[in-house]
Amino acid sequence: MKRKKKRLADLPCSNAGAPRQSHQVQLHQPPGPLKKQELPPAASSKERGIHHPRAEAHAPPSHQPPPRRAAHPLTTTAMAAVMSVSAVVPPAAAVARARTLLCVPATARAPREMAAEVAAAAALGADLAELRLDRLAGFAPRRDLPALLAKPRTLPALVTYRPKWEGGEYEGDDEPRFEALQLAMELGAEYVDIELKVADKFIKFMSGKKPENCKLIVSSHNYDNTPSAEELASLLAQIQATGADIVKIATTATEIVDVSRMFQILVHCQEKQVPIIGLVMNDRGFISRVLCPKFGGYLTFGSLEKGKESAPSQPTAADLINVYNIRQIGPDTKVFGIIGNPVGHSKSPILHNEAFRSVGLNAVYVPFLVDDLAKFLSTYSSPDFAGFSCTIPHKEAAVRCCDEVDPIARDIGAVNTIIRKPDGKLVGYNTDYVGAISAIEDGIRATQQTHSTVSPLAGRLFVVIGAGGAGKALAYGAKEKGARVVIANRTFARAQELGNLIGGPALTLTELENYHPEEGMILANTTAIGMHPNVNETPLSKQALKSYAVVFDAVYTPKETRLLREAAECGATVVSGLEMFIRQAMGQFEHFTGMPAPDSLMRDIVLRKT
Ligand code: NAP
User: Fold this and answer.
1) 52, 352, 395, 591: which one is catalytic?
2) Least crowded by CB within 10 Å, which of 15, 226, 253, 293?
3) pLDDT-derived band of residue 452, with 50, 70 and 90 as boundaries?
4) Ligand 1, atom 34: nearest CA belongs to which residue?
């Protein structure tokens, strides 16, 4: 077993204060305008004179990953610490990087189905498939492995036979397991995974018989937490000491900031040319699976389909390729995302990633499942984390976390968009109110067929149900446009509070049922009533709806809520929350990029995919 790779433990940690070299200066450099995505290189890595051991070692020509751009800026404060340690090594620009591979785990119970999964993974565009032997029912190595590894194969194979004590399903002794893994090597498996706890034993068992073209992945899985950076560094050194060709460390996130420590290790390994798979499991670790190409991870796993994940919160390979464009993610890719809790249901990644792609931006948009907003923003503090959408429950905290807040967003008391300026300052905006109010104005104008520049809300009685973030946005926006605003809310004290702020009366929801001071009123629901799955609920009876000329519903799943359906039946002009969603997202896109939003494309994506 060759032991060429440098170890983190070998690093002169005392150099923490050493001056930073060129690649590190970027930490403090303004990001500048967003760059259009660089086109993939036309020439192969060999033609470009870049040695590419990863691709050459295992992949058939069509699987050869292109070379990557090299140096990348640091992205967390924690990373800055580690990167200062590595100041003595040559700048990363000198280091050739291979593309992060996409591996699909094949987890079927029968060998024939597993082979079909591998073929399906190849059709999806995966780079390799992980054969999870421990998943096979009645697995007989000498009978099943020759079939599973028969050549020609559609994809390179990573063979894993995970024992129960490391999160797998194999319950027997080590020896038969080792024999199966050795047989897989002899049959030409490109990668074999062995757990750190038994790596030395396995290597002894192999007694030097590992084929040259098979790479040994030595893995460690922590299903409880993500250790400190120091502990991760020590784990890395332990794995390297086994003689592993590739290090694999999988931990578990208890909060999203845990992932920064894994990024830190990836960045370090990339500098040292140590191939590493570094992933953080569960929903708070999700970004590790999407952003590892930015930080130099050797591979990321994507499931064949939902329900076939081999680890908690593994995305599908199709989403990694089609939604997150991981093939385009590199060191210079800017990171945007939606901060919320929960956030997994959000359609914003689909929308923004496709919009970024349409204008050729080197940027990715991910869901950030955040518990503590201030901690998140101070951890992911580099200019590379360039902008955020903010949703429940962080919109109000976002006002406090920003260095500057747009005056209307401050009045509303809610920020749904955060931009990191070149000087690092965070600026907060609210695009909800512009999105909602312009949607309602246009909805009314469409029925009036006038070209007046005066807002059709001016002078109208505008009833807002709800006093939360969206309620405040609608109330302030309507007031700005000259409407007379009334607030109705379940918690009456909150209705009063908002009413006082905007100078309008407050109602209880019961009072609202019989509220009919005049004709032609406008109603805006800003509560979640009627939202999927509670689609039969509605905030106001059909009888009461007869008093309204225009009805807007912030809820957009389903597109036509019961409120809107009944309002339309009563003859009101109805405006869907989907229109608000599209417009607030377009506003965010413009803040993120400084470019006009691709209006029809974003509209089309929302209608097609949400
Ligand atoms: P929020 O700050 O939590 O406020 C929720 C409001 O709804 C509060 O006034 C709350 O009343 C009221 N409410 C909640 N459940 C209720 C119930 N069962 N009965 C009566 N009132 C209830 O939330 P938000 O950010 O304003 O979002 C509210 C809704 O707007 C959500 O459905 C969200 O998806 C939607 N929204 C849509 C868009 C879009 O682009 N279309 C944008 C933003 C928000 P209490 O004060 O009594 O708790």
Assistant:
1) 395
2) 15
3) confident
4) 555
